[in-house]
Write a structure and sequence with these properties.
Layout: E1 2-7, E2 28-32, E3 38-41, H1 47-57, E4 63-67, E5 91-97, H2 98-101, H3 104-111, E6 127-133, E7 139-141, E8 144-151, E9 157-164, E10 167-172, H4 196-213, E11 218-222, H5 227-230, H6 241-250, E12 255-259, H7 267-283, E13 287-290, E14 295-298, E15 312-313
This protein binds zinc ion (2 copies).
């Protein structure tokens, strides 16, 4: 199994001179099994280039499965520009959180209403299906075994542990650390005080995450903020590399990939972040890589001892 990063940013796309090396597109990762099965995690603007590649590979009608963490803009905005959707006979199955999926058809239909986009969802040649996922309720897609994991983000989010080819990786975005309840907080007014029930739910959420991460080879984690930024915006629903590293050390994960980069972090700052956390990870026995657009990573024992030299670049267009 291998994974490829088609979009690594959070919040909004930032293509430009300052983001040439790490990329400016928003969240989208492709997982590939050795038998060629594919699953797409999140549908940010990086999904457009992925779609173009998939169309070039297609030899006939095909089904694509898209796992959504949640339906914030930076995780769905690529869907209307996913070119396989315009090929008759294509099926696109979108899997999302129970609460979001209740209205998912409306959400996706909403962003393609005629005011916003020239072709409404019901006119798209591909057949769309919507599936609700529930944290802890596992399911299979092709050769992949999928485990949804509840995360701590305003109005909810879900991560995924993905097992395939005898190996596993996890996609943990978007999430804040497990010290504050976010879904009941107001974006502008900031955090509300925690009740004892809130603390209990957060502990349970963290415990469940730790159980699901046991034995996982590679964890891709929302590390949007640096620690000095996080203290100013603890209620935005994102983590720092330090918080992700703490989780990975405790779960004895081999490799952490920093992901969902803040749009304000240009290439030079990203280089500093990558170097700083590679060194910090080495001190505690976790290999820390920093995702860039076009990065392909082999998952599992075959990648044992991997370093940046084994990271494969792909041509993202
Ligand atoms: Zn996001
Ligand atoms: Zn979000």
């Amino acid at each position: 199994m291998q994974i490829t990063f088609w979009g690594v940013r959070g919040s909004y796309p930032v293509p430009g001179a300052a983001t040439v090396r790490y990329g400016g597109q928003t969240s989208c990762v492709e997982a590939r099994s050795t038998s060629g099965d594919c699953v797409i995690v999140d549908a940010g603007t990086g999904m457009r280039a992925l779609g173009n590649k998939l169309v070039r590979e297609m030899t006939g009608p095909k089904q694509f499965d898209v796992l959504l963490s949640h339906v914030h803009w930076d995780h769905i905005q690529g869907l209307p520009f996913f070119s396989p959707a315009y090929i008759p006979g294509t099926k696109i199955a979108v899997h999302a959180l129970l609460t979001a999926a209740d209205e998912l058809q409306q959400v996706i239909g909403g962003i393609t209403r005629h005011e916003f986009f020239p072709m409404p969802l019901e006119s798209v040649p591909a057949q769309f299906e919507f599936h609700q996922v529930e944290p802890g309720v596992e399911f299979d897609i092709g050769g992949f075994h999928i485990t949804p994991i509840a995360l701590n983000h305003p109005f909810g989010s879900v991560g995924y542990r993905i097992d395939g080819d005898g190996d596993s990786w996890a996609y943990i975005a978007d999430t804040a650390p497990f010290t504050e309840v976010l879904h009941k907080q107001h974006f502008l007014s900031g955090p509300e005080p925690l009740s004892e029930d809130d603390r209990t739910s957060l502990r349970a959420m963290r415990d469940a995450l730790m159980r699901r991460l046991q034995g996982v080879d590679t964890v891709v984690y929302d590390t949007h903020f640096l620690p000095e930024e996080y203290v100013r915006f603890p209620h935005y629903g994102h983590s720092t590399p330090d918080q992700a590293l703490e989780i990975c050390v405790e779960a004895q994960v081999r490799r952490l990939v920093l992901y969902h980069h803040a749009p304000s972090h240009g290439d030079d700052q990203m280089d500093q972040i990558a170097a700083m956390y590679l060194a910090r990870g080495a001190e505690v026995g976790v290999e820390v890589l920093t995702a860039f657009e076009g990065m392909t990573l082999p998952i599992g024992p075959a990648a044992e001892g991997a370093s940046e030299s084994t990271v494969l670049g792909v041509g993202v267009t």
